[in-house]
Amino acid sequence: MGRDAGSWHSPPPQSRHHCKIKREDDISDEEEEEDSGARKKLRLTKEQSSLLEDKFKEHSTLNPKQKQALAKQLNLRPRQVEVWFQNRRARTKLKKTEVELEFLRRCCETLTEEKRRLQKELQDLEKSHKLSAPRHMQIPATCPSCKKVIGGAETGSPLPASWPRFFNPFAHHAA
């Protein structure tokens, strides 16, 4: 894949140096940029932007032939088209990440609120259980045949003499 003006090139493999060199036409472009001050940002026309967006919707990446043809059609350098596509992919990825982050933030808020609500409900239930425990004690009942008390504090114990007999509709009482 060829490089365009303004890009750095490595030395040929036989030299094995780790420095970078520039082509002569790169240096002359750089000198022109230094004369005019800071490097100018490329401003695309509405037509160029629209065509780039349309091509991006078709394919988010371009092969070298597509890049070359699009650059020629837009009167841009292939490297400019390549960089535009890289930037557009980065913006798309960033936007997707922001949308996912907002979704997760809302989920987290919902879950946090649900947790608070459940903790309060649990606290209320524990409080009402502690307050109502004495009122919900099991009432002892007497087995009519064996006279054992069923339920209450001492289950299965014989009925103490001091306890009154419980009403039994089937028992015959002498009045």
Automatic annotation (TrEMBL):
Residues 37-96 bind DNA. Keywords: Coiled coil, DNA-binding, Homeobox, Nucleus, Transcription, Transcription regulation. Residues 35-95 form the Homeobox domain. The keyword DNA-binding applies. Residues 1-46 are annotated as: Disordered. InterPro entries: HD (IPR001356), HD-ZIP_Homeobox_LZ_Class_II (IPR050762), Homeobox_CS (IPR017970), Homeodomain-like_sf (IPR009057), Leu_zip_homeo (IPR003106). Residues 26-35 have a biased composition (Acidic residues). Residues 87-128 form a coiled coil. Gene3D superfamilies: Homeodomain-like. GO terms for molecular function: DNA-binding transcription factor activity, RNA polymerase II-specific; sequence-specific DNA binding. PROSITE patterns: HOMEOBOX_1 (PS00027), HOMEOBOX_2 (PS50071). Belongs to the HD-ZIP homeobox family. Class II subfamily. This is Homeobox-leucine zipper protein.
